[in-house]
C-alpha cells in the first residue's frame, strides 16, 4: 500500500489518497472522525484546536460503507479557508496587486521549525510558503489514513493503542500497564486529559503544562504505542530494508517534532546484561510458542514474535514559544526575537494519537504486502492460518 | 541509489551490488579494506574475528580506480568456505544422502535471535537456514557499501565518524568532543580499544567487557555518528517519507541488534523546556546563517540545517551467551538451555563502525537523489553552489 | 516525482496528488482546463462528453500561480454526482434498505472490459464496483497531471504534441510532418476533428467513425507523440529499469485500451537492414552532434539522443458496442448479449491527448529525477548547462 | 521481488542478486545453464558466442538445491578476463603508466549504440567505459534471473515459451501454433536454427541471415512470448502503474535493441472493428469462464484473464555492421566510418530467449507480490485456490 497527502495549513483542504487497500473492508467517516477528534484533544492545546472540529469526507474508493479495492480519497476541509482565500489562493495575483501587499508574509524564521532551511531549499522569501506545509496540521490526514489502517487491523484481530508515558520528566508508573489489554488501556486513557495511564502522574503533567503556558514556554515528552494480536513472522530478516522495526522507526521519526524512537526497554539495554534483556522462549500445547517476558518489544530479527509490539517516541517541546528565541530576519539580516505563530504549550497527548496512527499504517501495510490481500476475507483467512501454523510449528 | 546484499555467514561469499553511483568517483579496495578491518576490531570480539581478515574484491563498475557509472559489485570471500561446502553447498544433495545426516543442523532456537520466527516464516526445520542469513556477518558488506558512500562524501567535503558513548552504563564524557572535528575524533578513537573518546571510560569498558566474558554474559551500549560539512537543505519537510531523519532512523534500526535511535540531545528533550532545546539562529556576513547550539542534532523539519548531524543508536547485548537462556527444541518441544553459536561478549565497538557506514550511505543517497549526479564533477560543483547560495540567502 | 489518482466514474470527484514538483513553477487552472477540454473533444465522442465540461480545482501546493514545492492536489468534480449519491455514496446503507434494491447494479460483464476479472479479483457481485474505476473517466486526472508536467517542460524549452496517425486502417500521410515543429503540428491538428495532420485522411476517418456508429460498432487506431527540445542523456543504459524507453512504453500501455507501443519506425525495423535503420552521427561547430535521420525515435541505449522522441501507441476499438458481444451473467450463468454502458464509437482522438499527457509526465519525471530540482530556476540552469556541455563534448 | 545486475562485457564476471524469492523453491545451476546455452544459440551469432559457454555459479540464497528465502546471488565468470585484466582492471593505474597507452580505447561512437550519449552523460572520453556496460552481454544474467523465475512458474503450473515470428520481413505461419501447448511449441523450436515454429520460414530466415552477413549488414525481427496456465486476476486496473501489461511492456523495451511491443493481435487492432477484436465470454460447469478467442492476448483491464498471455517485441538490426555508418571521432571531430566491435549479423533468435526470461520475471514478480509468498507451499496452495475460486465465481 502507499499514500500521499497534500494540503497547506490555511489552504482550502487537506487531502490524502490511499492506494492498495483490500476490497470489502468496512470504512466509515464516523470512525475516522472519532480518531480526528482524539487528535484534537489532550490538555495543553491552544485556541485553534478548540474552535475547529475536523471531519473527514470520503470521496472515492468506498461505496456503501465498504472499500472497493480502488484508491480511497479522503478530504478534511479547513473551516476558516474563507478568511484566507486571498492570502493562500492558487490563482495568480491580479496584475495590479503588488506582491509585497499580501498580508501575513513572514521573513522571520523560527528556530526549531523548517522555516529557514525550507525557505532556502525552495527559494521562498515569504516563509509562509514553508510553514503552511511543514505545520503539524498535516498530521490530521495522517491520522485519517491510520484510522483506515486500524479498521483493517481490527478486522484481523489486531489492537493498537497509544498513551503518554512522560511529559517534561514526569513519568507514568509503567507497572499500571501490567496485565491490561490494549482495549483496557484505551478505556482508561481516553478520559484522561493527558492520555496517561497513571492519574497521579497525569495530574502533575497538567500542572506542568499549565505552568509552561504561563511561563510562555513549551514542553515535550514520550509516547508509547502498543500493538497486540499480531501473528509471528511479519517483517523479515533477509534484507536490511525489510526489517519491520526499521520501518516503524522511520514512521515514528516522520512525525513532526519527534527526535527519537526505541523498542521494548529501549535505551535501557545499554545498561543491562544479555541475561537481563533477552526473552526466554516457552512452549505449551495450547498456546504454542510464547515468551516469558517482552523486553525486546515484540520484535526479533526485524520480525514480529507474536508478543505485543512496544515502541516509544520522544517529542521535543513545540518550538513556537511566547518566550522568544533569537533569530535573524532574512531580508534585513537583523536579529530579532522569534515570533509566535500558534500557542500550544504541549502537544504530547495529541502527538500520541498521531504516533498510534502512523504505526497502525506501517503494521497494516506490512501485512497487506506479505499476504494475499485483494479482498478482506482472503486476508482474514490467511492471518488465521498463519496463527495456527506458527502455533503448530 | 540502491543496493542489495547477498550471502550466508558460512557460504562461499558475501556480495553486494550498488546501483546509481556517479561516474568518475575514486574507489579502491584498499580504502574499503581499511573500513572492513575497523569493523573487525574493538575489544570484546571472539576468536572468529581474529582469524578472519575480510578483504573486498571489486568485480564490476570500477575501472582504473574510478567508477564508470555502471553498477558496482563487491565480493568478500569467506576463507573457511572450504570447510562448509558440504554443509552449505547450493547443489542438490546426492540421492544416497539422508538429509538428517547433514552436519551442524539446528533445531534449538536462541532467544533474541531470528531463529524461531525465521524458521516459522520460511518453513525451515533446520534453523541454520535462518541464522546463516540473520547473522551480523552480513554487515561486512554493508560496511563495504558505506565505505564507497564515504568515498563520495569525502569528495564533497563531508566527514563522518562514529564513536562509542556508552557500554553497560559506563558513559564517555561528552565534553571531550567539544571543539573537535570529525577527523580529530577519528584520530583519537582509532587507537582506543573501545572506539571511545574518553580514555578513562574506555578503560572501565574494557574491564566490563572482560568481566562479562568471564561471567558468560554479554553487554550492549550506545554509539554515536557525527556528520560534518553538509550543506543546509538535504531532505525535505514536504512529505513525511522524505524526511532525512526518518531515513537515518530506519538505517540505524536496520543494524542487527539495534533497538533505538535518537538525534541531538534525543530523549533528554522529554525532560527539558522548549527554551532549553531549540537552537537559536545567528547570522554574520562571513559565515551566513549558523546556530548558537546544536541540540537538535543538525536536523529541522526533516532537513539538514548545516550544523553537524548527531545521531545515536542503542545496541542490545548480543543474544548469544555462554550463560544460557531457556528455549524450546522445535522437534521435541523439550525445553533446553540455549546453545552458543559464537562468542563475542560485546560487539558495540564493531557496531559503531557499522552505524557509521549505514548512515554514510543514507546521507550519500540523499545527496545523489537531490542533485544532478551523473558525474562526480557535476555533483561537486552543485554542492559548492548550494553552500554559497544558502550562505547568501 | 510520483502521483496517485482516485475517483470513480460516477463518484463525487476525481482527485490526484502530485508529489515532488519543483517550487516556483507557474501552474494555473486555465491551462489545465484547456487540456481537459481537448481530451473531451475529437469526432466520435458520445453524448456524455458533450454535456460535461471538466474543470480542475487546485486545492494544494500552488499559491498565487506558482508551486510551493509541497504536494499539488487537483480535483475534478463530477457534475452529475447529485443523481448518483444514493447509488454510489460512501455511507453505509440504512438498515431498512435491501442491497438488492440498489439501482443500476450490474451482473453482466462486458467482453474487453475489466468487469469479469475485476469482479473475481475483488470479490464483487455488483460489477459496477469494477467499472466505476476501470472506466477511462480516470484519464481525466491523468491529463491534469500531464498538463502540470507540460508546464514544467515548457519552462525547460521542451515541446510535446500528439496526433492521430491511423483510424481503422486509414493512415495519415506522415510526410506532412516533415519540417514542422511540435508547435506547428499542434496548430494544425487542434482544429481537426480527428486531431490528424492530414485533412484528406481526417475526412475519411470522420466518415469511418460515423459509419461505425451507425453500424453500432467501434473502431481503434494509432496515436503518435512527439517530444522536442530534449537534451541528450536523459535516461540511462546502466540498468535495465532505468531505460527511458521502457518507462515510456509502460506509460503508453497504462492507458485504457492501449495494446502496443513502438518508437521511431517501430515494427518496420523487423523488415529493414541495419544500414537502413540506424541514424548516422554528424557534427558541426555550431550545433554540435546531430543525426542525419531519426529512425530510432530519439532514443539510443535507453537515453535521449537530442533528436525528437517519436513514440506511437495502438488503441483497440472501445469494447462497448451497440452491436453486442456474447457474454455470461455471473449470477444466472445464462449467456446474454453484452449491454452498452456508454456510446463512443471511436475514442482515438481523445486518447491521443491522454497519450500526450502520460508521456509528458514520464519525461518531466525523468528530468526531475536526474537533475537538482528543488526549484525551477536551478533546474532551468542545469538543462541549459547540459545542452551546452553535450554540444561541446 | 527485485534484482540488480552488475558487470562489464570484458570484466571478470557478471553478477546478479535476486531479493524476495519464496523459500523452498528448487533451483539448480543445471537448469539455469540450459537457458544460458539457449541464449547463446540460434543462427547468426558471431564467433564469440561459439567459443564462450556461459555457466552460472550460485553463491548465495540456495542450499542443497532449494532457496532459503534469503537473497540469491548468481555469478557468471568471463573466461577471457585474463586477457583483459590490464585493460579493464579495477585497480588504479600505476603512476608510471600514461593513460593514453591503455589498449583498446575508443573515441569513435557507433550509431545506434549508447556510445556517444553514454560518454556525454558520464563524462567518459574512452567510450569503452560505456559500451562495456551497454553491451547485450548483460542479458546473460537477466536470462539467469528469468530462469529462476521460470523455476517458480513451473512449480505453479505456469508454462512460458518464446519463438521467432519474423526476421527481415520473413514471417512464420502463425496458424502452426494453433492447438499447441507451450511445451509442444518449445519442443519444436528448440531444434530450429531460428527458434521458429515454421520450418519453411526458418529456412528462408537462415538464408537471409547468411546473406546479411555476407553483405556486412545486419537484420532484425519480431519475437513472441506465450505464457500459459495463469489464473485470472494477476495485475490490477485500480491504478495505472499496477497494470500487468504496462509492466510487461516495460520489460520488453528494457531489452537491448528492442523498439516496440504489442499484445494479442497488437497493431492490427487499429485496422479492425470492435466486433472483430474483443473476446466473447463463455461459461460451462466444468471449466468455468473461458473466452471464445484470445485476440487481446490474455489481458483485460491490466489483468490476466486466464487465457494465455501473448506478447511480441520488435528488435532492430544490430547496430554494429561491417558495412559502416557515418559517425564522428569525439576527439578530432573528424567524420569516419563506424568501426566493428562484434559481428553478429542477426541476434533475433537469441533475443527471443532474453524476451522469454524478462517476461517470466515480470509474471513471477506479479504473482509473488500479489500472494502470500514466504514459502513455495503457501504460494502453490493459494494459486490453486485462486483457480478454483475464479472458476466458481
UniProtKB/TrEMBL annotation, chains A, B, C, D:
Cofactor note: Reduced FMN (FMNH(2)).
Entry annotated with the keyword Glycoprotein: no
Cofactor(s) in the UniProt record: FMNH2
Any one GO biological process: aromatic amino acid family biosynthetic process
Positions of NADP(+) binding: 39, 45
Entries under Pfam families matching the protein: Chorismate_synt
Alphabetized UniProt keyword annotations: Amino-acid biosynthesis, Aromatic amino acid biosynthesis, FAD, Flavoprotein, FMN, Lyase, NADP
One GO cellular component, as annotated: cytosol
Pathway: Metabolic intermediate biosynthesis; chorismate biosynthesis; chorismate from D-erythrose 4-phosphate and phosphoenolpyruvate: step 7/7
Catalytic activity: 5-O-(1-carboxyvinyl)-3-phosphoshikimate = chorismate + phosphate
Subunit relationships: Homotetramer.
Role noted for this protein: This reaction introduces a second double bond into the aromatic ring system.
Family: Belongs to the chorismate synthase family.
Name of this protein: Chorismate synthase
Originating species: Solibacillus isronensis B3W22
Amino acid at each position: 500500500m502507499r499514500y500521499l497527502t497534500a494540503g497547506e495549513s490555511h489552504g482550502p483542504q487537506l487531502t490524502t489518497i490511499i492506494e492498495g487497500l483490500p476490497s470489502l473492508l468496512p470504512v466509515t467517516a464516523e470512525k475516522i472522525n472519532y480518531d480526528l477528534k482524539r487528535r484534537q484533544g489532550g490538555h495543553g492545546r491552544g485556541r485553534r484546536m478548540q474552535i475547529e472540529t475536523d471531519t473527514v469526507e470520503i470521496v472515492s474508493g468506498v461505496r456503501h460503507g465498504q472499500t472497493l479495492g480502488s484508491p480511497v480519497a479522503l478530504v478534511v476541509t479547513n473551516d476558516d479557508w474563507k478568511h484566507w482565500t486571498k492570502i493562500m489562493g492558487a490563482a495568480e495575483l491580479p496584475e495590479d496587486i503588488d506582491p509585497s501587499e499580501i498580508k501575513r508574509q513572514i521573513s522571520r524564521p523560527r528556530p526549531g521549525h523548517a522555516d529557514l532551511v525550507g525557505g532556502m531549499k525552495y527559494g521562498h522569501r515569504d516563509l509562509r510558503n514553508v510553514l503552511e506545509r511543514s505545520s503539524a496540521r498535516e498530521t490530521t490526514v495522517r491520522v485519517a489514513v491510520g484510522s483506515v489502517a486500524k479498521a483493517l487491523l481490527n478486522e484481523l484481530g489486531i489492537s493498537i493503542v497509544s498513551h503518554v508515558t512522560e511529559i517534561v520528566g514526569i513519568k507514568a508508573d509503567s507497572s499500571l500497564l501490567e496485565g491490561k489489554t490494549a482495549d483496557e488501556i484505551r478505556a482508561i486513557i481516553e478520559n484522561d486529559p493527558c492520555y496517561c495511564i497513571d492519574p497521579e502522574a497525569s495530574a502533575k503533567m497538567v500542572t506542568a503544562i499549565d505552568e509552561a503556558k504561563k511561563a510562555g514556554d513549551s514542553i515535550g515528552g514520550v509516547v508509547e504505542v502498543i500493538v497486540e494480536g499480531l501473528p509471528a513472522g511479519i517483517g523479515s530478516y533477509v534484507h536490511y530494508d525489510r526489517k519491520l522495526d526499521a520501518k516503524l522507526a522511520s514512521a515514528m521519526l516522520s512525525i513532526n517534532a519527534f527526535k527519537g524512537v526505541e523498542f521494548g526497554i529501549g535505551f535501557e539495554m545499554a545498561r543491562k546484561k544479555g541475561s537481563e534483556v533477552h526473552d526466554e522462549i516457552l512452549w505449551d500445547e495450547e498456546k504454542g510458542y510464547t515468551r516469558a517476558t517482552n523486553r525486546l518489544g515484540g520484535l526479533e530479527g526485524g520480525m514480529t514474535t507474536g508478543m505485543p509490539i512496544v515502541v516509544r517516541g520522544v517529542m521535543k517541546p513545540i518550538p513556537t514559544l511566547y518566550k522568544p528565541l533569537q533569530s535573524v530576519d532574512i531580508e534585513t539580516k537583523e536579529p530579532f526575537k522569534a515570533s509566535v505563530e500558534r500557542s500550544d504549550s504541549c502537544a504530547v497527548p495529541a502527538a500520541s494519537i498521531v504516533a498510534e496512527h502512523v504505526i497502525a499504517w506501517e503494521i497494516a501495510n506490512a501485512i497487506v504486502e506479505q499476504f494475499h490481500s485483494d479482498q478482506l476475507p482472503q486476508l482474514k483467512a490467511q492471518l488465521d492460518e498463519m496463527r495456527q501454523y506458527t502455533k503448530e510449528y
